[in-house]
Design a protein that fits this description.
Blueprint (H helix, E strand, L loop, with lengths): L6 E11 L4 E5 L8 E6 L3 E8 L4 E6 L5 E5 L5 E2 L1 H9 L2 E4 L4 E5 L2 E5 L4 E3 L8 H4 E4 L2 E3 L6 H9 L11 E2 L2 E2 L1 H11 L8 H4 L4 E2 L10 E5 L5 E9 L2 E5 L3 E5 L16 E7 L4
Helix pairs in contact: 3-4
Length: about 270
């Protein structure tokens, strides 16, 4: 076994909050391991286990942000009381391509989907320590389907990146998770969990902002997209892009080609 790969479960939970622009989460606690997800500034997580040397921690992001190994040097610990407080506090989500936060006279740049805990009883003195420059919206206010499509389109040309979760690189699941988060909804981050999320509506009942899950002739899911309405689809194909989409040509009965069938159409917008 390589050094650093043996790990131990923790008898007590450790809580944390992301206090950097983007916190990478890895599949294995070794240098060079692929990313499984990323956390954005302000997102909360819990530590489940660590390597025996203590240099890597296994984190599970709250609200389906993803999980993976993080460097202990990037961990920002919270007491349980603080974690519970922030979990319930009023929340704003950043919407600007790049926002700027001055915190204790030091700048931090925030990406879309970052979290600002806006409750006046916050653990920090916002008036004395913070200055925010950018745009954000209350997470508690849900947007319309049309607004979700508009949010999704702001990621146009963002490149594909396995495990990525920002405008600098993302994959299908993480892109949709960010889109819906900015719009005030909690949805999964990984393709496998989209299969059981939301309400199945089918191609005939599809509306703008419904999620399409594509797969091959064996029924194995391969990618996701967002229906934009008016015969258009948004998806991550090398980068976030629009494609023409005719529902009649994508049913499993009419399209037998590999990785080109619509397996599910999901309504993730609560009525």
């Amino acid at each position: 076994m390589q050094n650093g790969t043996s790990n131990e479960w923790l008898s007590e939970r450790i809580y944390g909050i992301c206090r950097v622009t983007l916190l990478p989460m890895y599949r294995e606690p070794v240098p060079g391991s692929g990313m499984s997800s990323q956390l954005l500034f302000g997102e909360l997580y819990q530590i489940r286990r660590r390597t025996k040397e203590g240099d890597w921690l296994f984190a599970e992001g709250e609200n389906q942000a993803g999980s993976g190994w993080i460097l202990a040097s990037q961990h920002q610990e919270l007491e349980e009381g603080g974690f519970e407080f922030l979990s319930q506090a009023a929340l704003h989500v950043t919407t600007s391509p790049i926002s700027k936060l001055i915190w204790d006279k030091s700048p931090i740049y925030l990406l879309p989907g970052s979290q600002l805990h806006a409750d006046r009883n916050e653990l920090f003195d916002w008036g004395a320590s913070f200055f925010f420059e950018g745009e954000s919206r209350p997470f508690s206010e849900k947007v319309t389907r049309e607004q979700l499509v508009t949010i999704a389109s702001t990621f146009i040309n963002a490149p594909y990146l396995s495990g990525g979760r920002s405008i600098f690189g993302l994959f299908g699941g993480s892109w949709l998770q960010l889109v819906f988060k900015i719009g005030g909804y909690r949805v999964p981050n990984y393709l496998s969990t989209f299969l059981t999320a939301g309400e199945e509506v089918g191609l005939s009942g599809m509306q703008a902002a419904d999620v399409l899950i594509f797969g091959n002739e064996l029924g194995i899911p391969s990618r996701v997209g967002l229906y934009a309405g008016e015969g258009r689809l948004l998806l991550v194909d090398g980068k976030v892009r629009f494609e023409a989409f005719d529902p009649d040509n994508w049913s499993a009965s009419k399209n037998k080609s590999r990785d080109a069938q619509v397996l599910h159409v999901k309504n993730l917008v609560k009525k």
